[in-house]
Design goal:
- This protein has 287 residues and is an alpha+beta fold.
- A five-stranded antiparallel sheet has the order 4-5-10-6-7. Strands 11-12-13-14 form a four-stranded antiparallel sheet. A three-stranded parallel sheet has the order 1-3-2, covered by helices on one side.
- Helix 9 packs antiparallel against helix 10.
Length: 287
């Protein structure tokens, strides 16, 4: 289908984009990679009168280190996460997980900030950002503010990002020495959204779990942090029993929507399986 008519804007700075959002209000939408917004426009699910294309703002791209943090511009594309030496060394979970997102064409265009800001529970970066303890820098008419990924996602297509704000950067602490990580994603075919997914970041002390973050993809109206599952492992020996307890705690918070990928019971069961697989892989990577 053909989308409805709209006015096109191409700001050259974040300030200009914020000014346009303030001027145009709810009739405007930001255009990042476009892989979510443009299909919705073609189906007439979204009908913005104005598109603000932020692809021409150079400050929104790039990856750097600053004070023990990895700083990623919101318009950085997935392929840059895969090939970045900084991400590979300091946040290898993101480099590995990006390879599971869509296909090479999409990864050369789709952006990390667009994936996060869209608030789709089927997108991968919401759960990943929770697992890596990321925070987001948002710029609006009153300046910049920083919000944590954990708590940023409010529901399907709903986040703490205001209509007059632009996501500028993603910050995440570099992994400490000995950190294990994994992202397990069940999907029907290459390029598909997850039937269920699980991101894990963990560290150990001997045979005991000393740190763990577990986040789930596409098994609720928003990405989930599985805090009860973390509690089942933290300070405990890593055994089949504690892993099963974590998986059970994770499935208890699942509330997936039934669709072509399966019914709620199947998706919930697969979430538990993804938790167990991700935990086993992350544990094996802990030094």
């Amino acid at each position: 289908m053909i989308p409805p008519r709209f006015e096109y804007h191409a700001p050259k700075s974040v300030g200009e984009a914020v000014a346009l959002l303030g001027q145009l209000g709810s009739d405007a939408k930001l255009l990042a990679g476009g892989h979510s917004l443009l299909p919705m426009m073609k189906l007439r699910f979204a009908q913005p009168a104005h598109l603000i294309d932020i692809n021409r703002i150079p400050e929104l791209r790039g990856i750097r280190e600053a004070g023990g943090q990895v700083v990623i511009g919101a318009m950085t594309v997935e392929n840059d996460l895969i090939t970045s030496p900084i991400v590979q060394a300091k946040l290898p979970l993101l480099a590995e997980a990006a390879k599971l997102i869509a296909d090479p064409q999409v990864r050369n265009r789709g952006t990390i900030g667009g994936d996060i800001a869209h608030g789709d529970p089927g997108n991968d970066h919401p759960a990943l950002s929770i697992a890596i303890e990321a925070s987001f820098v948002l710029e609006g008419p009153n300046g910049r503010r920083t919000v944590a990924a954990d708590g940023f996602f409010l529901g399907t297509y709903m986040t703490l990002l205001e209509e007059n704000e632009v996501m500028v950067e993603i910050h995440a602490p570099a992994f400490a020495q000995g950190t294990g990580w994994a992202y397990e994603k069940l999907k029907r075919k290459t390029g598909d959204w997850a039937t269920a997914g699980c991101a894990v970041v963990m560290r150990k002390s001997g045979n005991t779990v000393s740190h763990v973050r577990i986040a789930l993809t596409n098994v609720a109206p928003t990405a989930l942090r599985a805090e009860a599952a973390e509690a089942a492992l933290l300070g405990q020996a890593f055994t089949p029993a504690t892993v099963q307890a974590a998986a059970d705690a994770a499935t208890a918070i699942c509330d997936p929507a039934e669709d072509l990928r399966g019914d709620a019971e199947y998706k919930t069961a697969m979430a538990g399986e993804m938790v167990k697989r991700a935990l086993a892989k992350a544990w094996a990577r802990c030094a």
